[in-house]
């Protein structure tokens, strides 16, 4: 992932406020942390990331309850929220962004078609979760997810 204007803006805003960020990524596989760390000076604001592609990692490392994964599934608002909260706890960050979704081309269902993505941002006791329905190729869905996640994090600051 290359450095985007959104990533530059996020790093600058975090620096100005003295905040640290962490990420928990599933469908993007580290692209959000890659975009952030592509910005010079990101080390002052970026604590770390976890690529939680497997449900076991979501449960064991981020504290997503197994009943949530078994009930509503990995691609859900509840899972995204737990992932964001878990990343804050895991890294000791002030803010965390988490993503989980179906990038495709396979894996979709009628209720959760390809392009369904949940993005959560957590700061303090606040958690925002948004559902997106992106279109396009796997690469396009992942890229749109990165941009939406960065923008949602900017809004939370």
Give me the CATH architecture, please.
Alpha-Beta Complex
Largest sheet: 5 strands, mixed
Helix run count: 6
Query: What gross morphology would you assign?
Result: globular
- What is the CATH superfamily label? CinA-like
Give me the secondary-structure category: alpha/beta
What number of domains? 1
Ends distance:
23 Å
Total number of strands: 5
Topology:
Elements: H1 5-17, E1 21-25, H2 31-37, E2 46-51, H3 55-62, H4 66-71, H5 77-91, E3 95-101, E4 116-123, E5 126-133, H6 138-156
Parallel strand pairs: 1-2, 1-3
Antiparallel strand pairs: 3-4, 4-5
Helix pairs in contact: 1-6
How is this structure best summarized?
This protein is of the alpha/beta class. 43% of the residues lie in helices and 22% in strands.
Main attributes of the structure:
157 residues, alpha/beta, Maf protein, 6 helices, globular
